[in-house]
Amino acid sequence: MSAKFRSTIGNTFLLNLPLLLLFVSVFNEFDFNYLNYQYFSFNFPYILIFYWSLKRIETLGYGFIFIAGMFNDSVLGFPIGISSLTYLIICGFASYLRNITLRPSLTKDWLYFLFTILFANSINYFLLVLFFSIEINYYEILGNIIFTFLLYYIFSYIFDIYRKILLRIKI
Amino acid sequence: MAASRDDFIIAIRSAFLKKGNKQRFSLIGLIFFSIGLLILSKINLPITNYLKITLNEIVYRTSFIVSVPEKKIQDFSDKIRDHYNIYNDYLLLKEKNKILQSKKYETQFLKEENKRLKKTINEFIYNSEELVAKVLIDKNSPFLKSIIVNKGSKDKVRLGMAVLDDRYLVGKIVEVNYSTSRALLVSDLNSKIPVGIEPGNIQSILSGTGKQNGKIEYLEADVLIKDKSIVYTSGSGGLFKPGIPVGIYHKETEEYFEVVKFFSKLSQLTFVKLVSFEEENN
Which of A75, A107, B171, B209 has its CA 20 to 30 A from that of B265? Predict the structure, then answer.
């Protein structure tokens, strides 16, 4: 195996790592629920989708985000299309922020992320409860929103480092 | 003022309507497609059902494989916890075993007597078919509490079948695909099971709370349930056989008031029994 070929594989892996993480997280929901801490859960796909839609949308792509949403619905037993819609709303909000931002700041992104997930979860809750008559624990969703919001700050630091690596190797 | 409104419209248009760099679909197109799918799901057309079943088959299998590393971590953390608790558990089990030994003979006698008496009054005797299924995915998500099992319509799994862990009720089948099914756990908010509470033969509905326990609903105000009463299925509605144990009613625990603690640990299910009951006249 030549060094050039190996570096191509490595680069492709690095480039598609966020997409891979998105699919792993919708299939697996690694939200540490098994720790059984009451109300502790977070929505990793929201963080991933918002961050990469804001910073570099070509990494994920709307089509893949839509498919990931369908997979998430299937895993959770929700009506097909509901997670896709939520994910795409997050993409829309992130894309709007990208268009109006001249000087990016993590704190602004973070607060805007809170507004985005509150809106997206409201749509999600409204559709599930009123349109499909599925009962949902409101406090668990609230816990999920709070932890997702808090963890965004940490994950965006990690993703920033990762993005710098991508820029350094010019992918 | 007008300029800032124009900027807003341009930014919105650019975000939702424009196809971005290397993007095959526009955001607004996909949003409308999702809404279309949701409407089709609501209408419940046969074609969307087939589509859903196919998607579920693929996703459940893939999810099972992807979940393996997390399951290993979970098993490891459970093992460590079990090791810490082993001595206390041993003492508790020793005590329980003593009580159970004495109750065993009594139960056997009562069972036989019950059968004999049922025959005398011409009541139904239940015939049951059992299937053992492996739990592929247990989604303890904040939204729905459900499990996916590796038996489907090809194994004659039907909607509404009872899901048992050993002898205890843990849920019912709510979705059947070709080789997989989804069971809604008794702890889910959407789960409502007709139950009888002993002693007293109090008839009620057991509802999930979305946590690791359930609550008794639709009970008349003057009915009092004794602490540590046993909750069984009542068989009302003909969905389940009467007398399947579900849990113990607690008036007060460390965290909650008036809850039913399930006999089975719903987060630790690996194999379950899918059981259908048929009434057989004497």
Answer: A75
Q: Does A81 touch chain B (CB under 8 A)?
A: yes
By C-alpha distance, the chain A residue nearest B266 is A34
The whole-angstrom separation of Cα B79 and Cα A133 is: 39
Instruction: Judge if the upstream peptide bond of residue B199 is cis by omega within 30 degrees of 0.
Output: yes
Residue A86 has pLDDT above 90, yes or no: yes
Task: Say whether B199 sits in a helix, a strand or coil.
Answer: coil
Residue that the structure tokens 């720790």 belong to: A35
Q: Decide if A33 and B7 are in contact by the 8 Å CB cutoff.
A: no
Residues 129-168 of B with CB under 8 A from A: 137, 139-144, 146
**pLDDT tens per residue across span A28-48:** 765 555 555 666 778 889 999
Interface check B21 vs A, CB under 8 A: yes
Any idea which residue has 């109750």 for tokens?
A: B103
Both tokens assigned to B65? 């494989």
Place of tokens 């499909």: A132
**Would an 8 Å CB–CB cutoff place B268 in contact with chain A?**
no
User: Does residue A171 sit at the B interface (CB-CB below 8 Å)?
Assistant: no
A121 contacts on B by Cβ (under 8 Å) = none
Query: Would you call B22 and A28 a contact, using CB atoms and an 8 Å cutoff?
Result: no
Does the beta-carbon distance from A27 to B48 stay under 8 Å? no
Residue-level pLDDT at B50: 81
Give the count of domains, chain A: 1
Whole-angstrom Cα distance, residue A130 to residue B74? Answer: 35
**Is B143 within 8 Å of A140 when comparing Cβ atoms?**
yes
* pLDDT on residue A118: 93
Q: What H or E segment, with its residue span, contains residue B196?
A: strand B192-198
Range of the domain at A85: 3-168
Sequence-ordered list of residues with C-beta below 8 angstroms from that of B162, at least 6 positions apart, any chain: B169, B172, B233, B239, B240, B241, B244, B274, B275, B276, B277
* Residue A8 pLDDT: 77
Q: State the pLDDT at residue A139.
A: 81
Residue A36 and residue A140: Cα distance in Å, rounded? 13
DSSP string, A80-134: TTHHHHHHHHHHHHHHHHHHH-SS--HHHHHHHHHHHHHHHHHHHHHIIIIIS--
The answer for residues whose C-beta is within 8 angstroms of residue B50's C-beta and 6 or more apart is: none
> What would the pLDDT profile of A96-137 be if each residue is shown by its tens digit?
888 887 788 888 889 999 999 999 999 988 888 888 888 777
Which residue numbers in chain B have pLDDT < 50? Answer: none
Distance from CA of A37 to the nearest CA of B (A): 11
Q: What is the CATH number of domain B192-266?
A: 2.40.10.350
B31 CB within 8 Å of a chain A CB = yes
